[in-house]
Amino acid sequence: MAEGTLAKLARIRGGELSAAENVASALERIQELDRRINSFIELNPNALAEAEAVDRKIKRGERVGKLAGLTIGIKSNINVAGLRATCASRTLQNYVSPYDAEVIKRIRAEDGIIIGMNNMDEFACGSSGETSAFGPTDNPAAPGHIPGGSSSGGAAAIAARLCDLCLGTDTGGSIRNPASHCGIVGLKPTYGLVPRQGLIDLGMSLDQIGPLSADVAGTALLLETIAGRSDNECIMLKVDRVNYSELLREKSLKGMRIGISEKFSELTDPAIMKVIDGQIEKLRDLGAEIVEVDLPNLERGLSAYYLIVSVEFFSGTRKFDGRKYGRRIEDVCGEEVLRRILRGRYISQKEYRGKFYQRALQVRTLVRRELLAAFERVDVIVGPTVPKLPHRLGTKITPMEMYAYDYLTVPANLAGICAGVVNAGRVNGIPVGLQVQGRVLGEPEVLRVMQALEAAG
Amino acid sequence: MGERLREIERSAEEIIQTFLKSTENLPEMKETYYSLEAYNVVRPDGEPSPEEERRKFRERFISIMPRSDEKGNLRVEVAAWLKER
After folding, report:
1. Domain range summary for chain A, segments of one domain joined by +
2. ipTM greater than cut 0.90
3. Within chain A, which residues score under 70 in pLDDT?
4. Other beta carbons less than 10 A from residue A444's beta carbon
5. Would you call A205 a catalytic residue per the annotation?
6. B5 lies in a domain?
7. Active-site annotation holds for A324
8. Superfamily assignment of A1-297+371-457 in CATH?
9. How many inter-chain contacts (A to B, CB under 8 Å) are there?
10. Helix, strand or coil for residue A383?
């Protein structure tokens, strides 16, 4: 059984394991395993020196932060000063970040050690981890299969124990999808809870930065580090810092109302549903009341999502014209990135009739209303994360087949609510994740349900 | 290249057609641009970044510029239409 995040943190704080030893051990594992997995694009050359500085603070008896000495991988679309934020694209392959994103400043302030930049789908356009210009990432929990995407490198690095925690981003499922396929924990926070300043956007009205970890405690710890209002962020909820770890002490699910929907079964592989149903029974045994909720328009969200994200992506990528740095995006990007740019351009050109983008925003209203109405009856909604098992690396599938991985994850982004994933079991040896969706700022309830399931084993 | 581009354009349009079909019978309703209604758009002016941080930013930014002039200023591409004049 691997050591939990909090147990390791206690050993570092207590001087039993030095931060430098923890970093050195991570670097050794990366050296040994990552040639095959390909979860990191670049390592931080200062990681060991930064860890030694934390050790000196501990030795002097000074206060250390809540992430003291833990190793953290960062998705390659978040700015970390001095490291490359490539978005896994040739467009930005030599772009060295001149500043730290707000979330990185917060991690550094809590003595977390940035170990390196994780691989990802190019510009976060993908659900498989195969579209990176730096090559595909393998799934350590199911070798030879896709790890999911777009936070493919972060999820794979956690699954292979190459680092303690990772930061991913989630626009339509990009944290939850790979967390499910790799058998780990991940959480997409409520839109506006975590500052996005310093994130290279995919879809500005949908993107959120969030944690990936091996256990629920790690996710809670990283979330409480990065969450909370920032004056540098223009679209942000007025929320002060919340201590999610403290809230996890409540172990019982008594009094909780947990929603399920038959819509999930209609869209999902029966073998996956069998595993999910087993977890729902476990929740009932833990004292929760299971309530059926109605989500009739859930699947309409997928095509609306891809319209919205294409328009926002087209707009967001106009700055990559090769003039100030990098290379012009259309000249060097992969097929999926080009597809989204062309689609976004087409929709934007035709939009004078209000036929596409405006209509997609109306579907967004519909999906949001439906989910918010459900949350008047229940505390969380549980179900599968991804409706089908991950394909083998290199298998040719159509764009529509690829998009179908996102059916169950995009509604949370459209509605701006939070959603987490915890491992539910395996099908044919491949991990399957349970998705726990919560209302706006419902992270405490989501984490509580995930923690209860993790503890129940 | 032409055929590849056409194929990408075809698949880009496929999702638009799927979307139009799925919304045929939906009534008109209000659009949701952002899921939040409270924006922090008039944020207060903060303290300027420390001098050291600004110096490092400038150094790092200069190091990734593709082209610069003799004074170290960023040089961007001259528009084609300007050259023609």
Report:
1. 1-297+371-457, 301-357
2. no
3. 1, 352-354
4. 19
5. no
6. no
7. no
8. Amidase signature (AS) domain (3.90.1300.10)
9. 142
10. strand
